[in-house]
Structures are given as C-alpha cells and as structure tokens.
Amino acid sequence: xxxxxxxxxxxxxxxxxxxxxxxxxxxxxxxxxxxxxxxxxxxxxxxxxxxxxxxxxxxxxxxxxxxxxxxxxxxxxxxxxxxxxxxxxxxxxxxxxxxxxxxxxxxxxxxxxxxxxxxxxxxxxxxxxxxxxxxxxxxxxxxxxxxxxxxxxxxxxxxxxxxxxxxxx
Length: 169
Known about the structure:
There is one protein chain. This protein has about 170 residues and is an alpha/beta fold. It has one domain: Rossmann fold, CATH 3.40.50. About 50% of the residues lie in helices and about 10% in strands. The chain contains eight helices and five strands. Strands 2-3-1-4-5 form a five-stranded parallel β-sheet, with helices on both faces. It is globular.
C-alpha cells in the first residue's frame, strides 16, 4: 500500500484521534487535518461553541464537510469526528482511504473526557450504540487505545499499510 493514500482516523471522543493522527502523519510525511482546526478556520469556533451557537445538526454538517473537503484534496491524515460516519457520503468517500478506528472501553473514554472541554453531556455508550456499526463498516484497522499508546497505534498503521517502522533512534 502506498503512503500516498489518505488515512482517516475515526473514533469516539476521548479515543485520541488527534494524537495518533499527528504521529501517523509525521511518519508518512503527510499533512495532518483535524476537525477542530477546520471548524475554527471555516466557521470561527471549535465544536462545543458551534454546537451551543448553531445546534448539533449544523456542527455535524460542518464536520462531515471537513472530511469530504480533505478527501477531495491531496492525500493527508484526517482526524474525523465520529458524527461524520452517520453521513453516507462520508462513508462512501472513505473507501478511497485507509481507515483506522481508535477505540477503548466506554469507561476509559469517559474518564478521558472528564478532563476535556468538549461536550459535557457526553455518554460513550450512547454514541457507541448509535455509531459502532458505521465504524465497523469502514475500518481497515481497529486499535484498542485502552491498551496501545499513540506510538503503538502509529506502528500498527504502518505495519498494516506494509510500510517500514519509524526509526526510534
């Protein structure tokens, strides 16, 4: 597999999409794109303020557009908001990418989100029930981030893509 193929990192909030995505991008020599950076640039705020200001439906439309816009451009590593998988257009566009699902037990994700400024009403079990079948549909690789560190996720991705490991000297 070529390192010129886009990589999309998916997962629920708290799974470490951004951290793992940055490491994968660095290893592949590709640009990294995160939804919060995109939202800030295109809509003047990150996810929580947009949801409060315009509602979750608008936020989810913007997050889906992020993935569609980035997949239409040159290959890069994209950290995609979990909501994007509810959009059939996004799932179809992801077929051209290598999709990594970073996941952990609900308790692990909930603990990670307690120290975050994302959405206070976050319930991993509800989001999993709503989106897990979409994750399974598109994922080329599943990494348990309750066990794996972000560097190990990067290494799993490189291995699955048939690329050499990162030199750790």
